[in-house]
Amino acid sequence: MDTLSPKTADYDALRRKLTALLGEKGVVGDAQTLAPFLKEQRGRYEGHTPFMIRPADTQEVSRAVALCAEAGVPLVPQGGNTGLVAGAVPFEQDGALLINLGRMNRVRNVDPTDYSITVEAGCILQSVQQAAEAADRLFPLSLGAEGSCQIGGNLSTNAGGIHVLRYGNTRDLVLGLEVVLADGRIWEGLSALRKDNTGYDLKHLFVGAEGTLGIITAATLKLFPRPRETAVAFIAVTSPEAAVELLARSRAASGDRVAAFELIPRIGLDFALRHVSGIEDPLGEAHDWYVLTELASGQADGSLRDVLENLLATACEDGLVIDAALAANERQAAAFWRIREGLVEGQKFEGGSIKHDVSVPVSKVPLFLERALALVKEMVPGIRPVSFGHLGDGNIHFNLSQPEGADKADYLARWDEVNHAVHSLVVELDGSISAEHGIGHMKVTENAHFKSPLEIEMMQRVKAALDPQNLMNPGKVVPR
């Protein structure tokens, strides 16, 4: 599946054709303008591209892809460039053009009766949420980058976020897709159907494929009733085992109305208190582990708070909960959620951080934490683990801040070594080495190591069938 060499492709001729198609503002070659689009969030990779194209609609994407296919030039699709595995970074050896979809940002249709919304790939996630809210509906996908990430990227990486427990990953929110294939043809797969049992469900090939099979240009997504009442609590628990038990009890007691259930370690809260403005400790004393939970209901009758109060009272009596603070209003609830956001921000000030986005079955989270913490502390004495995240779906962000006083570069040089050790444990516990961030470029080799040869072969066959020239985001997700 080799492409033409960058040395043999006529990029000048291709640029002229693409400029004629897209106009001057649709082709960007200035190095200074390009620079922000070529750097990924964590600063581990910096890309290179002869120039970037910015189509304004699906027809322009289709024609641009066809021109690139004819010239044998690869394309790297990019949304808001908020990814964490270098999936939207073009690398020099591929000679790939960057195709940024940010100009394609229209909300095409909102249907409150059908509980659906159709949007273009370049729509900012927050804009999709707001369009749903304007129709008195909820689009539940919510994550830290929602003010800048784009829905096409969310779909391409099968993004998760804080509400997966209640509503599922992005994959579970998709009804239909519009996709430009590797040869430029448009698959018109937009549909609001809830049932369509007519063969392969093709949309799921492209969700989570990170642009390696085609370019998502639009999507029809599920909407839900807006919550009329929420109850939010910040809870000190005796252990991760107690947190898992509290989750099970919460789901049962609330009629499965748990919208979010986040695990927070004390060290993460300390980092946030130290470095992030506006963070306050909701409880009077320090504890090792906390849970931030939110219940949500379509009825505003005050029952949720009663459910949560009764649940916590019983959990205290049973030795699961040490202390808890229930949000009295929306302002206090937002302050609790600000702590969760501050966990990520606070780590940036504590030196190098080796990060993991892993998942195990919810019941095995305590065992994973016990074994993983012991493992990394033995590998790197003085290491400071910040283990937090979406306990409700088993997705733990196992981030490891460097020992105090350590050399940052020397510490980060051990990234692959530490990753592999942690990933080996995750797989042993029937987990995944990438819960919500994707594979991108960073985890291709690691993914190939842990997946069975048959799984890799099947992925490569799908790739070869839909992208025989290997022009769609080469070197990402699937081993070359």
Describe the structure concisely.
The protein is 35% helix and 20% strand.
- Helicity range: 25-40%
Q: How many separate domains?
A: 3
The largest sheet is: 5 strands, antiparallel
So what's the overall shape? globular
CATH class annotation of the largest domain? Alpha Beta
Average of pLDDT: 95
Separation, N- and C-terminal Cα atoms? 8 Å
Structure class: alpha+beta
Q: How large, in whole angstroms, is the Cα Rg?
A: 23 Å
The total count of strands amounts to 19
Identify low-pLDDT runs: none
CATH architecture of the largest domain, by name, is 2-Layer Sandwich
CATH topology of the largest domain: Uridine Diphospho-n-acetylenolpyruvylglucosamine Reductase, domain 3
Spatial order of strands in the largest sheet: 5-6-10-8-9
Strand content: 15-25%
Per DSSP, the total helix count is 16
Pfam families: FAD-oxidase_C, FAD_binding_4
Family: Belongs to the FAD-binding oxidoreductase/transferase type 4 family.
Cofactor: FAD
GO molecular function: catalytic activity; FAD binding
